[in-house]
């Protein structure tokens, strides 16, 4: 089982931006595909960004145009760039790759 580690969460004001990063514990693992999910208190976990093996992306309407998923050239880091954050984006964000999940990183949007 691959261990995924997220970073980059924190407290940001409405309208602000954050970039989350995810790396794998094993050097042999690369992000040829991956996804970011989030879970707000009392809600189910939901997909917010998906990167396919052919480098296509998918976003739900709730974040489309504000969030962007990418992997670095070496495929070792999966990122989620989040712009124009709103209070409803407050959640724990999880990195996902081929059946493995990270432990999550908290994003709080508040003034």
Brief account:
The protein has 111 residues and is mainly beta. Helix content is 0%, strand content 48%. Strands 2, 4, 5, 6, 9, 10 and 11 form a seven-stranded mixed beta sheet that branches.
Task: Describe the overall structure.
The protein has 111 residues and is mainly β. It has strands at residues 4-7, 10-12, 18-24, 34-39, 46-51, 57-58, 67-71, 77-82, 91-97, 100-101, 105-109. The chain has no helices and 11 strands. The strands form 2 sheets. Strands 2, 4, 5, 6, 9, 10 and 11 form a 7-stranded mixed sheet that branches. Strands 1-3-8-7 form a 4-stranded antiparallel sheet, with no helix packed on it.
Number of DSSP strand runs: 11
N-to-C CA distance: 39 Å
Oligomeric form = single chain
Secondary structural class: mainly beta
Rounded to the nearest angstrom, the radius of gyration is 13 Å
Question: Helical stretch count?
Answer: 0
List the uncertain runs. Answer: none
- Helix and strand sequence: EEEEEEEEEEE
Keywords, separated by commas or semicolons:
mainly beta, 111 residues, single chain, seven-stranded mixed beta sheet
List the helices and strands and how they pair.
Layout (H helix, E strand, L loop, with lengths): L3 E4 L2 E3 L5 E7 L9 E6 L6 E6 L5 E2 L8 E5 L5 E6 L8 E7 L2 E2 L3 E5 L2
Parallel strand pairs: 2-11
Antiparallel strand pairs: 1-3, 3-8, 4-5, 4-9, 5-6, 7-8, 9-10, 9-11
């Amino acid at each position: 089982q691959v261990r995924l580690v997220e970073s980059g969460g924190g407290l940001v004001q409405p309208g602000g931006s954050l970039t989350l990063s995810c790396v794998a514990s094993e050097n042999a693992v690369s992000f040829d595909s991956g996804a970011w999910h989030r879970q707000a208190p009392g809600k189910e976990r939901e997909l917010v960004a998906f990167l396919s093996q052919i480098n296509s992306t998918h976003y739900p309407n709730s974040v489309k145009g504000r969030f962007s998923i990418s992997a670095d050239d070496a495929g070792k880091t999966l990122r989620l760039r989040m712009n124009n954050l709103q209070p409803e984006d407050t959640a724990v964000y999880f990195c996902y790759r081929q059946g493995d999940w990270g432990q999550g990183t908290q994003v709080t949007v508040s003034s």
